[in-house]
Amino acid sequence: MDTTRKIASYVLTAAIAIGVACTTVPETGRSQLSLVNSDEVLQMSLTEFDKIKGSTPISKDAQQNALVKRVGERIAKVVQLPNAKWEFVVFNKPDVLNAFALPGGKVGVYSGLFQVTKNEAGLATVLGHEVAHAVARHGQERVSQGLLLQLGGAALSQAVQARPETVQQIVQTAYGVGANVGFMLPHSRQQELEADHLGLLFMARAGYDPHEAAQFWKRFRDYNQQHGGGKGIEFLQTHPLDGKRIQQIEELMPKAEAEYQKAH
């Protein structure tokens, strides 16, 4: 894992040296890698969302569709995302408790999630989180991180090309596993917690009680436990454990309460 980090560090230093910019996440101030053009990522996002809509059944439940659109647009009004093309779609997947966001403001909610949202503020927790992914440019950052690791893999391959083929395969496999566990997964969990952070503030600014965010994640934790989930080892997961998410939300609650009071 140390070798992986060193290689990634060398490649990152080289990338910055040739003029690749880093951007800053709104609100949190975290510095993030940006190796790809935002316009290109936006176009890929629009194309991908159209593909999803063409291959996944869209819900015909008028009440669910109206609710998601109303809550989503209400949250979108309190955020800054230049050139956003906001669209909130409910997909008819009763057994899927999930939602997603693509760069540029494309948000999908699977109908199974309504089992846990329960109310409008619960849904605002989810949509605030997904809007936060878009605002924080997490999709663009993940693409950049993937490119960085490809560069690192290419550099490593060049470094061991004189070694026997078996050794080369072992090194590349170790690099792949180490890069995933030591780099990609921690960054993914960091992005999820960051989206929780921003989403909590966004829902509060939109006039939704932020206390419902903690209640939503407790319901989600209970659902996971009842259905055999939520007990994984965190460093092997893309998402943080439910308990950590709840803890962070409770720590941020005073700030969120202040934003909620301003909205009223």
Structural class: mainly alpha
Mean pLDDT: 79
Largest sheet: 3 strands, mixed
Using the alpha-carbon principal axes, give the shape.
globular
Taking pLDDT < 50 over at least 5 consecutive residues as the criterion, the unreliable ranges are 152-157, 167-186, 231-236
Quick rundown:
The chain is mainly alpha-helical and 264 residues long. The protein is 64% helix and 8% strand. It starts with a helix and ends with a helix.
Description:
The protein is mainly alpha-helical and 264 residues long. 64% of the residues lie in helices and 8% in strands. The protein contains nine helices and five strands; from the N terminus they run αββααβββαααααα. The strands form two sheets. It has a three-stranded mixed β-sheet with strand order 3-5-4, with helices on both faces. Strand 4 and strand 5 form a beta hairpin. Helix 3 packs across helix 5 and helix 5 packs across helix 8. It is globular and about 40 Å long. About 12% of the residues have low confidence.
Write the layout of secondary structure elements.
Elements: H1 2-17, E1 22-24, E2 31-33, H2 38-55, H3 62-76, E3 87-91, E4 99-102, E5 106-110, H4 114-117, H5 120-135, H6 138-159, H7 165-205, H8 211-226, H9 242-262
Parallel strand pairs: 3-5
Antiparallel strand pairs: 1-2, 4-5
State the main characteristics.
single chain; 264 residues; mainly alpha; three-stranded mixed sheet; two-stranded antiparallel sheet; 5 strands; 64% helix; globular
